[in-house]
């Protein structure tokens, strides 16, 4: 099994990604491409594109190779997504960057990320699995399905390239999950769905453990700090445009600012401020790509006191003004 080879960045926009139990330090090739601009869709919106045999509303949606092409061109956010490429390749836009995934590649995308699958090869055979945090928690029962790594890392893009055997192992689990969803009249349908998702997660975790020198040191269960971190990320995704203080997030989590900072620093290696500011910056840079949106409007939409305050914040974070970034 090998990690996707280093890929060169040809765009100036920084990359931000939140990732859960898979944490592989690697770079990716980034390709210039045209973006598909549509409204962002949640798991519930996506489910409407598919047969009821493919999903349980607000819990899980599985998209097998036969239906995968229906995803082309849709912008998606607000859902955890796994993508497994069994054959062929595709290009996708992730948080404003365009990447290529090839045969046996695997990608895990968190709820706060924005993704659009932009183009597929003719021979593409790929799976997509979308789950909610509630479904994963209920299915795994706090079990940690993989090596103990920092729960998120904003600056890395963890794409894995599995062996053919490993890819086949995961595909078998996805087929079992697909079959359990298909039988809508089964008395224990939801129980089987959770069981096979758990099985998929454990097989994935076992594959990831092959990268670890000492898997015995990995905690078997997800701790309270991990759940706090996930809840913090969900709050950031929802409120970053209007709430710019760590105190707001700490209060919502019933924690002191100091305690929340300590937890987030431990699980992510970054402060809550750093994560919040990166999310604000990503949104600002995405809006700056559209010349129709004035800098004043961006400042207002992101709830800065005025345009000057926004420009000062932007320059401090990126080292250039919004105007300079737009003209780059």
Question: Gist?
Answer:
The chain has 328 residues and is an alpha+beta fold. It contains 11 helices and 12 strands. Helix 9 crosses helix 10 (307-318).
What can you see in these coordinates?
With about 325 residues, the protein is an alpha+beta fold. Helices cover about 40% and strands about 15% of the residues. The protein has 11 helices and 12 strands. A 7-stranded antiparallel beta sheet has the order 1-12-9-6-11-4-3. A 5-stranded mixed beta sheet has the order 2-5-10-7-8. Strand 7 and strand 8 (about 95-100) form a beta hairpin. It is globular, with a radius of gyration of 20 Å. The relative contact order is 0.13.
């Amino acid at each position: 099994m090998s990690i996707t080879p280093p890929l060169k960045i040809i765009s100036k926009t920084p990359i931000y990604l939140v990732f859960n139990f898979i944490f592989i330090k690697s770079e990716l090739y980034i390709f210039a491409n045209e973006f598909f601009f549509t409204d962002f869709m949640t798991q519930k919106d996506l489910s409407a594109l598919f047969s009821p045999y493919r999903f349980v509303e607000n819990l899980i949606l599985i998209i097998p190779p036969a239906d995968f092409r229906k995803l082309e061109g849709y912008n998606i956010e607000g859902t955890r997504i796994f993508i497994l490429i069994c054959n062929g390749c595709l290009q996708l836009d992730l948080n404003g960057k365009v990447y290529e995934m090839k045969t046996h590649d695997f990608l895990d995308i968190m709820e706060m990320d924005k993704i659009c699958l932009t183009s597929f090869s003719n021979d593409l055979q790929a799976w997509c699995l979308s789950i909610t945090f509630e479904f994963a928690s209920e299915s795994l029962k706090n079990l940690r399905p993989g090596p103990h790594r920092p729960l998120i890392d904003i600056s890395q893009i963890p794409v894995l390239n599995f062996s053919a055997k490993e890819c086949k192992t995961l595909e078998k689990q996805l087929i079992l999950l697909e079959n359990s969803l298909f039988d809508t009249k089964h008395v224990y349908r939801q129980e089987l769905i959770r069981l096979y998702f758990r099985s998929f997660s454990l097989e994935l975790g076992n594959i990831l453990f092959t990268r670890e020198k000492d898997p015995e040191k990995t905690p078997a269960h997800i701790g309270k700090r991990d759940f706090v971190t996930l809840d913090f990320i969900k709050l950031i995704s929802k409120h970053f445009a209007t709430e710019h203080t760590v105190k707001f997030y700490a209060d919502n989590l019933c924690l002191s600012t100091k305690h929340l900072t300590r937890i987030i620093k431990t699980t992510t290696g970054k402060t809550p401020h750093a994560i919040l500011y990166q999310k604000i910056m990503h949104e600002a840079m995405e809006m700056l790509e559209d010349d129709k949106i004035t800098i004043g409007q961006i400042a207002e939409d992101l709830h800065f006191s005025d345009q000057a305050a926004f420009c000062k914040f932007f320059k401090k974070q990126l080292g250039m003004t919004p105007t300079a970034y737009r003209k780059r």
